[in-house]
């Protein structure tokens, strides 16, 4: 098997986050007891029998009608998975040519497959990924046509050309800087891969050769530009905490300590550092549907960038997160988005993020919700720890 050659120059990447629960609202039917004086009359007896029969029918009918209504109150449902409780779900993807066929990744070498749009999932075994010495953490998955890619930690790269019916392991150089945390299928036999040290590599031949898209590591960039006034960037030796890619190939990444963020656009030789525009440390950042940025701070704050594109100007948006941190935001459309966080926090906006309301669907789920991902405007999922998966009902 030929060894994949990596033409390095750079390092630094990202990690992902995700929990949820559903608390059905309780309907209470109050009943009153009344006593009747019944006269010895067949007509009155008939009336009383009719009254009892009718009120009994009502008492049976009303609760069932309320229960049926409750089933449609929430736009999410929990999908129970055949995995250990301690598994953290990390990514999900579907085959574009078969939208019912998808894969779900997680810690402890978790790989699940669905063929009914995410209603049910079954464990999937990949012989080439089974190693007695390692318990892989599958971080990211992406499909383009029938071609698919999976990356994980310790360093592992899997490739399929038949929509996931079979997977082959692509050998990687031991000199790969950092852990692979993100991969994006781009075109025929092509992909873009990011490590947690900020390296970006591209391939056009099924992963057998990789070319560096940046000319130096993030650490080198920061230590070279420390005089530019990036707070907390001097002698930087850490990694990215999160990485997010826009549809047009731009990246935004948050430092592991959350004290600054960096961006990269196709064609740039280096990552560009940015001071955070807020007092609290950054939890996560990503792209809005309109091309702007959203920013989450530790403790639950949510900010939106002014305008579109890369900027350092943000405005805070009021959110009710019950004191728990918000960990991720996913856009279903330009107007509708969902935010998820600690202890089952689930929020929705219908105006592009200007205001948010809480959905109580996950209040009773004792898990953190790390990732919100919409495959399209009809299919979405929320991934959490302890094997929690929520499916969008719409």
UniProtKB/TrEMBL annotation:
<dbReference type="Pfam" id="PF14870">
    <property type="entry name" value="PSII_BNR"/>
</dbReference>
<dbReference type="GO" id="GO:0009523">
    <property type="term" value="C:photosystem II"/>
</dbReference>
<keyword id="KW-0604">Photosystem II</keyword>
<keyword id="KW-0602">Photosynthesis</keyword>
<dbReference type="InterPro" id="IPR016705">
    <property type="entry name" value="Ycf48/Hcf136"/>
</dbReference>
<dbReference type="InterPro" id="IPR028203">
    <property type="entry name" value="PSII_CF48-like_dom"/>
</dbReference>
<protein>
    <recommendedName>
        <fullName>Photosynthesis system II assembly factor Ycf48/Hcf136-like domain-containing protein</fullName>
    </recommendedName>
</protein>
<dbReference type="InterPro" id="IPR015943">
    <property type="entry name" value="WD40/YVTN_repeat-like_dom_sf"/>
</dbReference>
<dbReference type="GO" id="GO:0015979">
    <property type="term" value="P:photosynthesis"/>
</dbReference>
<feature type="domain" description="Photosynthesis system II assembly factor Ycf48/Hcf136-like">
    <location>
        <begin position="71"/>
        <end position="392"/>
    </location>
</feature>
